[in-house]
Structure formats: structure tokens, C-alpha cells
Amino acid sequence: MSNQHGRQWAQRSPRAQSVASGRWAGLTLITACLLLAPPDAHAQVGHDPARSPFRDITTHQALSLFVGRFGGNAAPARVGARSGLVAGVRFETRLSGPMDLWVSLGRVASSRFVVDPSLDTTSAQRITGPIDLPLYAGDLALIINLAGRKSWHRLAPFLGVGFGFVTPENTVIDASGFKAGTNFTLAPTFGARVFVARRIAVRLEARDYYMRYEWPADFFGKDDAQGNPLPPVLESSNPTKQWTHNWTFAAGLTYSFTF
Q1: Fold of 54-257
Q2: Prediction pTM value
Q3: What phi and psi values does residue 189 have, to the nearest 5 degrees?
Q4: Residues contacting 150, CB < 8 A, separation 6+
Q5: Residue 118 φ then ψ, to 5°
Q6: CB 103 within 8 A of CB 137
Q7: How does pLDDT run along the chain (259 residues), one tens digit per residue?
Q8: CA-closest candidate to residue 189, choices 169, 154, 164
Q9: b vs e for 226-250, b when ≥16 Cβ sit within 10 Å of the residue's Cβ?
Q10: Handedness of CA 44, 47, 53, 59 (dihedral sign)
């Protein structure tokens, strides 16, 4: 039977073969498009909207309160901001498509050590602390909602990046010349909202505050009163300006509305 079909195909004109091949190619393309269609299209076609796992997010703004743990990073010099409790507030507004704009402000109950390179490592006063270093962190963030303007099984994942600052309540300059002051930061962000009601959601997120420190010359070598070299705080191979990761994990409560 297959041989007879093959002879019939061979006896067709080139035009007929071309039309048949085109039909098969068209069917193959349609099948591929259906297989590669976004998950939400598969989930919703032919489903009762009341039973669909997807729900439209119709609100345009939101206000969130959050609390969590600022990871901190003392850095090799051990004088950077350490981990501590963070709490804050955020306003969110819808942009075009799946994009949102966030404005966040939080307070971090951080601390740090003080290193005195003019003292030998045998001195108990070379490293003192920790001392309190309350920080304020603020940023603007562009966020992409991965499920668009919908939630899936009440879950709405997101990712984005923030641009802002981390600054202490009071700028401090140590005797070594190290300055604990305002730090401009980049904050990659990812997480998800879990809707417990149409306007109320629980938010879980992770952020990484990139912070840069600039080390004073005394950290790389200093002499004592007799002119003898003291052990350096940092090796000469260490960069004088250093970026650090400060992972922060937070949970919050979000109320959504529309102006």
C-alpha cells in the first residue's frame, strides 16, 4: 500500500507536490505555534473563567509595609555595615504592559566595627565594637510582572532592579580616615505576591544591595610611633574601592487600589 502511495506521489505534477508540501508545512507551523503558545493561553482556552487558575489584577496602585533581614557585609576590612532588621514602606504604580514603578524607603538597624590601624594586632583596642550604625535605604525600581496583569493560582511573581541610596543617620569618619557615609546602590530584586483577597496580598522578596566602600591609605600599611611597620588591615593586593553584596530578605503586606 505504501509503495502504491509513493508511486502516486511521484506521478503528481511539481505544482501539485508543491501545494501538498505547503499544506503539510502550514499544519506543522500551526501545531508548533500551539505547542509554544504562552502557558496562560493554554490554561484559559476552553475553561470556565470562574475555574481558571488565572485572575486579572485590575488595580493600578498599591501600598506595602515590609519587614525583613538586611544581610550586611563587613567586607575584608571588617568595618562595613553588618546584618540587621529592616522595616519600611513602598508605593507602587502601574506603567505600560507588565511594568511597575516602585518607590521604597526603609530603615535598617545595622552596626559596624571600628579598626584602628595605628595599633598592633596584639592590642585589644585595634578592633572595637560593634557600634550602632542605623541606615536609611531608599530607591526607585522598575519591575516586570512575570505573569503580566494576572495572578496564577493567586501567585504573581516579579523581578526587577532598583537604583537608590543607603545612608547612615549620621556620617562618621574614623581616625583611620574611613568614612561611613552615603552610598549609592543598585538593588536587583525578585519575589512574588500571594493574593489572599482581591486587594490584599502577602509579599515575599529578595534584594541584593550593591554597596561600594573606599578604603583609606592607612588600611594598607602604617608605622608605629617608633617608625616600625604595623600589620596592615588589608593586603596590598586588595582594591582600594570595593563593591559588596548585601542580600536582604523581606516579607510584607500589600493593599492594592486605583486612584
Answers
A1: Porin (2.40.160)
A2: 0.77
A3: -140, 140
A4: 40, 54, 55, 56, 57, 156
A5: -80, -5
A6: no
A7: 445 544 544 445 444 444 444 444 444 444 444 444 444 444 445 556 667 899 999 999 999 999 999 999 999 999 999 999 999 999 999 999 999 999 999 999 999 999 999 999 999 999 999 999 999 999 999 999 999 999 999 999 999 999 999 999 999 899 999 999 999 999 999 999 999 999 999 999 999 999 999 999 999 999 888 889 999 999 999 999 999 999 999 999 999 999 8
A8: 164
A9: eeeebeebbeeeeeeebebebebeb
A10: positive
Dump strand ranges (E) for 146-209.
150-152, 155-168, 172-173, 179-180, 183-195, 200-208
Determine contact, residues 186/225, Cβ cutoff 8 Å.
no
